[in-house]
Amino acid sequence: MQNLKHQFLLRDDITFLNFGSFGACPKPVFEKYQQLQLELEQEPVHFITEKGLHLLEDSRKVLSEYVHCHHNDLVYVTNPSYGVNTVAKSLDLKPGDEILTTNLEYGACDKTWDFYCEKTGSHYVRQPVSLPIENTTQFVENFIKGITSKTKLIFISHITSTTALRFPVEEICAVANEKSIPVFVDGAHAPGQVPIDLSKMQVDFYTGACHKWMMTPKGSSFLYVHKKWQPKIKPLIVSWGYKALFPSDSEFIDWHQMNGSRDYTAFLTIPAAINFMQKNNWDKVAADCRQLVYDNAQPFCQLLKTEPLAPLQENYIVQMLSARINTNEPEQLYQLLFEKYKIQIPVMRHEDKVYLRYSINAFNDQKDMDILFSAIEDIQKTTTLLA
Predict the structure, then answer these.
(1) φ, ψ (nearest 5 deg) of residue 112
(2) Which residue, among 166, 215, 211, has the nearest Cα to 186 in the 3D structure?
(3) Are 212 and 232 in a shared domain?
(4) pLDDT tens-place string over residues 123-171
(5) Cis-peptide into 346, omega within 30 deg
(6) What is the pTM assigned to this prediction?
(7) How far apart, in whole angstroms, are the C-alpha atoms of residue 362 and residue 154?
(8) Model confidence over 331-351: pLDDT tens digits?
(9) What H or E segment, with its residue span, contains residue 356?
(10) Does the residue 36 lie in any domain?
(11) In terms of residue numbers, what domain contains 314?
């Protein structure tokens, strides 16, 4: 496995196994970011109102080729939660309507749907996922049992956060399409980790983070909306793009792209990030990372006295692996791992369970996992934090 740690800005004294939270920017991409920020500050008016707008369109074109859609069908947002809020606020939900999801979704998105369902009298239906996942057929059959005549939208992760599981969203979209139910896929962890073809997915809404596995600066994500839905999706902030004096050929872009003064240079680094991946043969890098995840899965689970949450195949597990752990003090355990052992790894609550998740990217190697295993063994011997 080629180690590209020299290409990243990460601290040498930290064993970084938490790429899934906020990613990490390679040096060439971060340098492009700083260059754009400097250019912005040198002539902010021209950059924000003229040149930057052209660069935004160029960036969207590059990203649209990467995820396979028309460039006017996606708009940049700061994070996937922003995208989820945009769609949730725009849907004409009525009392009794149902949003079908799983019980393994990201907490911020659960809270968003809870808020809008409570406001409209609709219901957020969290269909339980049986763990460990056995196969795709079992997952899909169990999930679609939650569909009723009141189901107005399916909301589902492409790759979950706390459990790090890749869901069969393509199969879910196919079933939903047959039943004329729109689907919103939360792809926060997907771009850069798995191939995305929005032209084939039959998805109505898709939000993805570029600042995670695509390695752009923080605060760069996108929201894809199928053309048939675009007139119904209103911007969270109404600004100059509404009834634009000089409209573009896309009202959707006008409404959502310019929503007040902000530094949008992070969005403009996406071509540089894609170029970085292409130059470094990222298909091979990702495959090597997955193999390192799989090679360490059984030792990791055995050490924690648990079992993998799904088969060790890329249909279910990609560059992250999560295991359930027994601890009553997850926050204290996280702090101990970071402060004493210098390991950055998330310890995450999900309802009444706690998960420990490691992420692998181009700067990791087996030594990082060995450091983690040694720390876990020491904590088990010397504390009561981890059974």
Answers:
(1) -60, -50
(2) 166
(3) yes
(4) 999 999 999 999 999 999 999 999 999 999 999 999 999 999 999 999 9
(5) no
(6) 0.96
(7) 34
(8) 999 999 999 999 999 999 999
(9) strand 353-359
(10) no
(11) 5-28+281-382
